[in-house]
Amino acid sequence: MKRLRLQGVPVQRWQSKLEEASKSLPGSTYLRETGERFLLHGCSPEVVLGILHSGFDDKVTKKGMFGAGCYFAEDPEKADQYARPDPHHKASGLEELHAR
């Protein structure tokens, strides 16, 4: 960011709706300086461990509104549209997720 400013590249401040809530998250110290922001991703409970283990993989995504890819939002309401409920910790196949 400093290099961009020194080169005269205009850097506009972007205020995320999650900015206040993300101040207490790990790594948030440098968010302001780098221009990075935390975003949300809505998904089903069955894929959470895979994402945590391997990260997001756009090769296994289904076609979305703007094409295949990983989608993120700053609005909790938008991420909520894609999240699926966790059936009360007793669903088959989610034991490992709940154990962790």
Automatic annotation (TrEMBL):
Residues 80-100 are annotated as: Disordered. The keyword Transmembrane helix does not apply. The keyword Transferase applies. It is an enzyme of class 2 (transferase). InterPro entries: ARTD-AVP (IPR051712), Poly(ADP-ribose)pol_cat_dom (IPR012317). Keywords: Glycosyltransferase, NAD, Transferase. It comes from the Eukaryota. Residues 1-100 form the PARP catalytic domain. Its EC number is 2.4.2.-. Gene3D superfamilies: 3.90.228.10. This is Poly [ADP-ribose] polymerase.
